[in-house]
Design brief:
Blueprint lengths: L2 E5 L2 E4 L4 E8 L8 E6 L6 E6 L5 E3 L7 E6 L4 E6 L8 E7 L9 E6 L1
Parallel strand pairs: 2-10
Antiparallel strand pairs: 1-3, 3-8, 4-5, 4-9, 5-6, 7-8, 9-10
Length: 113
């Protein structure tokens, strides 16, 4: 059974950093695009970043230059390094096998001002 488990969320002050991890189990996702999405309080889920199977990356304009997505296929894990965090980055962050219905349970990120 496919499972995606996010970790690394928490409470951080504005300007701080966090690194989220998404560990996949049940099958390997090397060669697949993986993505991070987020859902701010009271808002719709939105795209954050994507990494293709060959390592090309794409970002939402709101996080470009501050967030970095990466992957370690040997560990079947995707990461999201978040720097220069802002209060508006507060959200539940979800990992996704891009274009599929495979989602993690989410991890809460709260940025205080």
């Amino acid at each position: 059974q496919v499972q995606l488990v996010e970790s690394g969320g928490g409470l951080v002050q504005a300007g701080g950093s966090l690194r989220l991890s998404c560990a996949a189990s049940g099958r390997t996702f090397s060669g697949y695009s993986m993505a991070w999405y987020r859902q701010p309080p009271g808002k719709e889920r939105e795209f954050v970043a994507r990494i293709t199977g060959i390592g090309s990356t794409y970002y939402a304009d709101s996080v470009k230059g501050r967030f970095t997505i990466s992957r370690d296929d040997a560990k079947n894990t995707v990461y999201l390094q978040m720097d220069s965090l802002k209060p508006e980055d507060t959200a539940i962050y979800y990992c996704n096998v891009y274009g599929t219905t495979f989602w993690g349970q989410g991890t809460q990120v709260t940025v205080s001002s």
